[in-house]
Design a protein that fits this description.
The chain has 7 helices and 10 strands. The chain is an alpha/beta fold and 243 residues long. Keywords: Cobalamin biosynthesis, Methyltransferase, S-adenosyl-L-methionine, Transferase.
């Protein structure tokens, strides 16, 4: 009886993988990883040169990424069928062998593997290896504390409605905005409405060789790469003295 090991790889720089993840990846005989059709996939790039020469690979190609709006029912149907099919295939493989599933960042933090994890519960043994989340690599790239003292930190999805983004941006001290891409203009407008735009940073491909760190107000781009995060640092609110 085998098992499925989901291996968190960290934010992108292979040097930021955990010792445990490195050991598991190097010893793996069967490796599955997500990727966009026709591309190697970021998780696979991270482990380039680490896999055994005789490893068997199982690329899991998304049927759709940005071609259809994420709130389109067809988008949900295609991805549900995709995850159903791969959960079934991995479950069959794990009856005989260990399969290592690669995941950028930390699998439990918005990781694609969680869609498989939910479908595989009770069917096969699963182990999840923690990884440094991508946002941690990004705020380290800026070189400033993201939050301190009593700061409240919010992690927001750029896919949220603009009004909700602005409201949450006003009510938090430190901000992390994920799922940027084509949502960048909306995120910019929400930050401006909340009075936070001048403090916002855009970090593209954090910790990777082509990393870019820039103030969001200083660029005019209408979108950004998939691996990009917007950050607003907290200022360290002080507790009010008790009466």
């Amino acid at each position: 009886m085998g098992r499925i090991i989901c291996c968190g790889l960290g934010p992108g720089d292979p040097d930021l993988m955990s010792v445990r993840a490195d050991r598991i990846v190097r010893a793996a005989k069967h490796v599955a990883h997500f990727r966009k059709k026709g591309q190697p996939g970021q998780a696979r790039r991270i482990v380039e040169g680490l896999l055994a020469a005789d490893v068997s690979e199982y690329p899991m190609e998304y049927p759709v990424t940005t071609e259809i709006a994420f709130d389109n029912p067809e988008y949900a149907r295609l991805l549900a069928d995709f995850y159903d099919a791969w959960a079934e295939r991995l479950a069959r493989l794990a009856r005989e062998i260990d399969v290592v599933v690669l995941c950028e960042g930390d699998p439990y933090f918005y990781g694609s593997f969680m869609h498989l994890y939910a479908r595989l519960q009770g069917r096969v043994e699963i182990e999840v290896i923690a990884g440094i989340p991508g946002m941690v690599g990004c705020w380290n790239a800026v070189g400033q504390p993201i939050a301190l003292a009593d700061d409240v930190t919010s992690v927001l999805m750029g896919t949220l409605p603009e009004a909700e983004l602005a409201q949450r941006m006003r009510s938090s001290d430190a901000l992390v905005v994920m799922k940027t891409g084509r949502n960048l203009p909306k995120i910019r407008r929400a930050l401006a409405s909340a009075g936070r735009l001048d403090d916002a940073w855009l970090v593209e491909r954090g910790t990777m060789p082509d990393q870019r760190v820039i103030k969001l107000a200083d660029i005019a781009e209408a979108d950004c790469p998939y691996f990009a995060i917007v950050l607003v640092h907290g200022q360290g609110r002080r507790r009010e003295a008790a009466p």
